[in-house]
Write a structure and sequence with these properties.
alpha/beta; TIM Barrel; 2 domains; seven-stranded parallel β-sheet; two-stranded antiparallel sheet; binds glyoxylic acid; binds magnesium ion
């Protein structure tokens, strides 16, 4: 499974030491993760390891063994069940010492999972806790347990609920992340064989403004990539808006707001269009020829 991971089309891969590892395997798993990082060619995949949370006895050794063992190929550490800004600061300080002691030239980034009621209450301070923070992630399975929701599957739609039971949570995490310039990522969808339900649920966080979603299985990757990539029509339209806006503002008319087809565009339209262009370009899209 690890050897296949780099070729599956995901932008990032994380290797887990936390909840998918049995308690009896926690310590041996560290060496396996280090070996996998060293032995495989990860190409340009962003590479991350999820360590155990600070309320266990494993976190500090997870971080030391993995960062020292994996060397500079490791891009990020993911910290689960983050509940306070201090927990992010603690990881930052530990990473700083490990990097100094080992003469590492590059700084490892931090991804923080919000998946408890306390983490959600403190998410704004958490997102501002360290310059190493790159990404904030919602963890629906642990969150459902923490909030005592009467569900047995994390991260799926609940038909009995008239709306989206996570809407507030999604929005609160998104705002805290955006206010601090972080990437905001939705967590796992556990019904791995139901790709249609995955598509529906992924669309929700995509529409709110999230940057991506976890995949638990190779089959989930194309669905998630498709939803988080603009369509060709959106991509082309974004370019057309940028062109029309540039002509209006910089041309002899010096207009700040003009008609584009049957709608008005202005500076805010330029910002919205730019997001589509950068997102699509990063995914390798090209503007259609006229
Ligand atoms: C992920 O870690 C989750 O709890 O959903
Ligand atoms: Mg979790």
């Amino acid at each position: 499974m690890l050897a296949k991971a780099p070729g599956l089309g995901a932008d990032m891969v994380f290797l887990d030491l936390e909840d998918s590892v049995s308690p009896l395997e926690k310590e041996p798993a560290r060496a396996k993760v280090v070996q996998a990082i060293r032995d495989h060619d990860w190409g340009d995949t962003v590479l991350c390891v999820r360590v155990n949370s600070w309320d266990t006895e494993f976190t500090y050794r997870d971080v030391i063994e993995v960062v020292e063992g994996a060397g500079e190929r490791l891009d990020e550490i993911m910290l689960p069940k983050v509940e306070t800004a201090a927990q992010v600061v603690a990881l930052d300080l530990l990473l700083t010492q490990i990097e100094k002691a080992n003469g590492h030239g590059r700084r490892i980034g931090i991804e923080a999972q919000i998946e408890t009621a306390r983490g959600l209450i403190n998410v704004e301070e958490i997102c501002a806790a360290s310059t190493r923070l790159e990404t904030i992630i919602f963890g629906p399975a642990d969150f459902a347990a923490s909030a005592e929701m009467p569900v047995l599957t994390g991260g799926v739609q609940i038909p009995e609920y008239p709306g989206d039971h996570f809407h507030y949570v999604f929005s609160k995490i998104l705002m805290a992340g955006r206010a601090n310039g972080l990437q905001v990522i939705d967590g796992p969808f556990l019904k791995i064989r139901d790709l249609e339900a995955l598509r529906d649920y992924t669309m929700r966080t995509r529409i709110l403004g999230y940057d991506g979603k976890w995949s638990l299985h190779p089959d989930q990757i194309p669905v998630i990539n498709e939803i988080f990539t603009p369509t060709q029509e959106q991509f082309d339209r974004a370019f057309d808006i940028l062109d029309a806006y540039e002509r209006a503002t910089m041309g002899s008319e010096r207009k700040g707001a003009v008609m584009f087809g049957d709608e008005m565009i202005d500076e805010a339209s330029r910002k919205m269009a730019t997001k589509f262009v950068t997102r699509g370009s990063r995914a390798g899209m090209k503007r259609s020829a006229d």
